[in-house]
Amino acid sequence: MSNRVCGGLSFTFCMVFLYLFMMIDLHTHTVFSDGELIPFELVRRAEAIGYSAIAITDHMDASNIDLIIPRVVKAVQKMKPFVSIEVLPGAEITHAPLQLIPELVKEARNLGAKIVVVHGETIVEPVLKGTNKAAIEAGADILSHPGLISIEDLLLAKEKNVLLEITARKGHSLANGYVAKEAIRFGAPLCINTDSHSPSDLITKDTARQILLAAGIEENRIDSIFENAKSLIDKVLRRN
Ligand SMILES: [Zn+2]
Ligand SMILES: [Zn+2]
C-alpha cells in the first residue's frame, strides 16, 4: 500500500505519514446496495479526502451475494493499477437468519470478498438477537455496530480477534460509548469505520480520532485502534 500512496518518498517518511494522517475505512456502501456512489467514484472521493485504504462492503443476503461481489471484485481489479489507495472488495452480511450467517460468510470469501463484515445488533434496527454471537463464531473480520453487546460475546470477539466497530454512522453511533467502554474493559479489539452511504459520510483521520475520543476512549489507546485496521488489512492480503 505504501509504495502506491507515497511514490518516490523515503520508506520511513512514507510509513510515518500513512500512520499519522491517512484514514483506513473498512465498511462502506455503493449503489450495489443502498449507497449513492458506484465503486470508482467512492474510491476517488476516498482518495481525495486522504484515505490510504477502503473496503467496499455492500449489504448482502442470499439474494444478491453472488451478483455483487464479482462486480465489485472486477471494479477493484480494473482500478487497482491506477489508484493510489488500497481497495478491498468486501461484504456486509445483513439481517440474515442466524443459521445462515456461517454459510454466507464462507460464500462471501469464496466469491472474493477480502473483508467480511456482519451487520451487528445496533440499537436502532430490529437485528435478530444472537447475530453478534453468530457473526463472531462464523469468523467474520468485523462485527459492525454491535450495540449492547454481551460480556460473553465481548470475550468471544477477543478470543477470535474479531474487530468490534466504533461507527461514524448516525443512529448506530448511539452505542459507541458502551461498545468502547466494554471492549476496553474486556480486551476485545476495536476499529473505527464510517459505514458511508453518501459522499459526505467519508471522514478524515482527524475526525475519526475525535469520534474515538468522544466515545470516551483515552488518547493513549487511539493509535492501537487504527493499528487494528491496518493489521487486519495485512492479514487479509497475506491470505491470498
Ligand atoms: Zn445501509
Ligand atoms: Zn453498513
Relevant terms:
globular, alpha/beta, binds zinc ion, 10 helices, single chain, eight-stranded parallel beta sheet, 240 residues
Please give the structural blueprint.
Blueprint: H1 2-6, H2 11-21, E1 23-25, H3 39-49, E2 51-56, E3 59-60, H4 65-79, E4 86-93, H5 101-111, E5 115-119, H6 131-137, E6 142-144, H7 151-160, E7 163-167, H8 176-186, E8 190-193, H9 205-214, H10 219-239
Parallel strand pairs: 1-2, 2-4, 3-4, 4-5, 5-6, 6-7, 7-8
Helix pairs in contact: 4-5, 6-7
This protein binds zinc ion (2 copies).
- As a whole number of angstroms, the C-alpha radius of gyration is 17 Å
Number of strands: 8
Structural class computed from helices and strand pairing? alpha/beta
Work out the helix count: 10
Description:
By secondary structure, the chain is α/β, with parallel strands linked by helices. The chain has ten helices and eight strands. The chain has helices at residues 2-6, 11-21, 39-49, 65-79, 101-111, 131-137, 151-160, 176-186, 205-214, 219-239; strands spanning 23-25, 51-56, 59-60, 86-93, 115-119, 142-144, 163-167, 190-193. Strands 1, 2, 3, 4, 5, 6, 7 and 8 form an eight-stranded parallel sheet that branches. Helix 4 packs parallel to helix 5 (101-111) and helix 6 (131-137) packs parallel to helix 7. The mean pLDDT is 95. It binds zinc ion (2 copies). One zinc ion binds next to loops.
